Amino acid sequence: MRKYLVVLALGLVAGTLSACSGSQKAEPVATIQHDSLNIDGAMRLSDVTVPKHYELDLTIDPSSEQFGGTTRINIDLSSPQRVLYLHGEDLNVEALTLVSGTKEIGGEAVFGANGGMAVILNEEAPAGEATLVFKYTAPFKEGLNGLYRVKEEGLWYAYTQFEPLDARRAFPGFDEPKFKTTYRTTMRVPAGMVALTNTKETDRVTEGNLEVFRFEVSKPMPTYLVAFAVGDFDILESEEPLDGVTLRLVAPKGKGALGEYMLKRTPAVVRYLTEYFGQPFPYEKLDIVAVPNFSAGAMENIGLVTFRDSLLLLDSETASVAQRRSALSVMIHELAHMWFGNLVTMPWWDDLWLNESFATWMAAKGLVDLAPQLESSVDAVSGKGWVMMQDARKSARNIRNPIETVGDIHNAFDSITYGKGARVLQMFEVWMGPEKMQEALRAYTSTYANQGATTEQLLAELDKASGKPVGEAMKTFLDQPGTPSVHVDLICEDKPVLKVTQKRWLPAGSDAPNQGLWQVPLCVRYEQRGRSEVHCELITQDTQNVALEATRCPKWFYPNANESGYWRWTMSEDALNKLSSRYLAELTTEEKVGLQSNLSAMLASEQIPPDTYLKSMEALGRESNRTLLLNTLGAMEFVNRFVTDEQRAKWTRKMSALTARRMRSVGYLPKANDAAEKGLLRARLFDSHFALTQDPKAKAEAQKIADAFLKDMKTVPADVAGVALEIVAREGTADLWLSLKLALEGAPTPAARSSIIRALGSFKDKDLHNKSLGLYLEGTIRTQDLWAIMGPSFSDDTTFANTWNWFTSNYSAIVEKAGQQAASNLPRVASGFCSADGAEKARAFFAGQPKVEGQERILDQTVEAIQHCERQKKYLENGLPGYLK
Ligand SMILES: [Zn+2]
């Protein structure tokens, strides 16, 4: 799954997930008391009952309030049983039977907590093969998980999102990833609609007013990868031959043409991955489906990959470079899952990183290879800095974290599993050599094809291919939280030696434990006779000397060559000063961005004076690379919130010197044959430039662009229009609000729609802002867009106060609409605060609400972020006069 914006997460529940699911002994008595059973879906299933094959027969009419069907599961019983444990949630079981040979045994379905379900048979079933048959109905639920429905331009559609724990709400089954089985599906849908699932259709017939679709038997799949889609779709088939894989784009009626761009980009991704793995694409069919209301970014269901519509439906005329980049990146991520997760599946959620870290790592790698003009490796360094901040929290998870509650499963879909995991893989890829990594992954995906595999099995392949103890070193990053902070001193007495020490990196004021010992693959770049050399060595001790292959004392060194390692560094003040000034030109762009990121870390741990930090950031922002500029502007926008009235004029002059010339050279609107660099910079520079300088010219441009967009939404790129609309909406009147509301209804693309929603969320006028927020609860703004409507207020204290008020006053309605799973993430709303008072408000509010699984950890993380924000604000406030001198 590719998470969206803020991390998908949730969690918390009583009871631990121990290894076995209650008593499964043969039960001789005739009556079994329900309360004597331990039916908790949070507990792991035993291997007493093993599913072998599913026959799903579903009747799905998206315009109806419920669906239903028959599920047949071929099982293998290792011993005679009266009670079988499996999963099912909100299912109304009308009949159930167990067929064993010629014997048919009736029974009763009993439901427990967390989607747990027990089948109590009327008599003991013998050991051996049997078939469980359920006839049931179930409601389409609120929220965007399980089997849910969406109304789009007057037409009803049904889609699924089962990962991690919601297949159990669509059909009874053994909803745990260790069980990989085959499926044969039949779907009955209203005439005129099309039904889709993981495999190819074999035939369709009309029965009364229903169209009956039958599908091929699948390859082995875990339940969380099963998927269905029903509706009157536009379906476009790719004309490009793709080695026996049928590739199609599926969109809501009338939207298919917007999918052509990504349909054309997808074959290159398939070829890139099949070449990397040295294997054909594992499945014969690939439907890429644009879903109009979707909680995650995308989901890698076998043969039926679902996407948030903005990632598949792009207007090839006006889509921004950033939007194209996101779409390509998510496509690589999802298709990489065909191997990482789908072909080879983790047996349990503690190994989720085998899916998500790998898919995220592959997306970063693929983006560099498939779209080199985007220079994405530089952005990846910025992303790493952000993840390291999350990793410094006291509440940070391990990449491989024990699962003790259902909440832990939902919490596992976070920036640690995705971002940290990917960067750790990249670090070891560099250390092993990319060819060895590829060799290991080819062996891993072919050895365990169509089966399950664990971390230990993966690490064994890495060791084997590299001939190095990669696994042992990697575990020091997988199994403990935190980022190493490596201090490097250059000592030139006899031969040049680096004295290296390590500890956990923490921001000032943190009370997280600072112990930790990592095996750090250190690759240092250093000057030698006017050229640069790289020396790599594994640091295993807390203090270690590294001898350089050098005859002279290097004039400079950069501790983390090309910034490919997942660790932070510090050095002496003298060495740092030289590196940031005289020898800056010697660094690669990745290293310059790394320098920026490490300076920010030194600021957070209060190891450099705030005015030195601001001056260094300003200097790095003057470099030509866009990422360096944007990082600097991000840092300055944080300061911008607390510049005093007396400081304002000087501050604005300084900021203007940083942004105005760049804004002129990039321009407010794209020109023909613009470089990708400009496309990636434009909207964000526009936004920062105006925020930092309040430039009247920029405001006039914003008005012009907003007017043009509202007149014809197809004439301006949605990202630039979005910035312009936000600028004018902040001071906007009721007339503008009405125009935006009207524009929302006719938005030609998902990107245009998002821009309008963000503008609606930007009004400073309290009544208009409240009317905008109200659009969410009345359903004009879709469930998936909750963060888009709230987000713009997070950087403005007054508007945020209004959002917080709305959020807390309507909390139960918001939870009901979002569904329990998305609700786990809601404490992040408090991240708009930057004061102890705000942290207190957040704690007090959530303490008074019904418990939602997974919220506890998210709330802890958010409160820590607020505390850090307040401390950093005070530190920078003190340094501001020195910077402005
Ligand atoms: Zn994923």
From TrEMBL:
Q: Which residues form the active site?
A: 334 (proton acceptor)
Q: Which Gene3D superfamilies match?
A: 1.25.50.20, 2.60.40.1910, Neutral Protease Domain 2, tricorn interacting facor f3 domain
Q: Which domain of life is it from?
A: Bacteria
Which residues are in the ERAP1-like C-terminal domain?
Answer: 556-867
Q: Which SUPFAM superfamilies match?
A: Leukotriene A4 hydrolase N-terminal domain, Metalloproteases ('zincins'), catalytic domain
Q: What class does this enzyme belong to in the EC scheme?
A: hydrolase
Instruction: Output the InterPro entries linked to this UniProt entry.
Output: Aminopeptidase_N-like_N, Aminopeptidase_N-like_N_sf, ERAP1-like_C_dom, M1_APN-typ, Peptidase_M1, Peptidase_M1_aminopeptidases, Peptidase_M1_dom, Peptidase_M4/M1_CTD_sf
Q: Which cofactor does it need?
A: Zn(2+)
- Which Pfam families did the record assign? ERAP1_C (PF11838), Peptidase_M1 (PF01433), Peptidase_M1_N (PF17900)
Give the GO biological process terms. peptide catabolic process; proteolysis
Xref: PROSITE patterns: PROKAR_LIPOPROTEIN
Q: Where is the Aminopeptidase N-like N-terminal domain?
A: 50-225
Catalysed conversion reaction: Release of an N-terminal amino acid, Xaa-|-Yaa- from a peptide, amide or arylamide. Xaa is preferably Ala, but may be most amino acids including Pro (slow action). When a terminal hydrophobic residue is followed by a prolyl residue, the two may be released as an intact Xaa-Pro dipeptide
Q: Which GO terms describe its cellular component?
A: cytoplasm; extracellular space; membrane
Q: What is the similarity comment for this entry?
A: Belongs to the peptidase M1 family.
Instruction: Report what the protein is called.
Output: Aminopeptidase
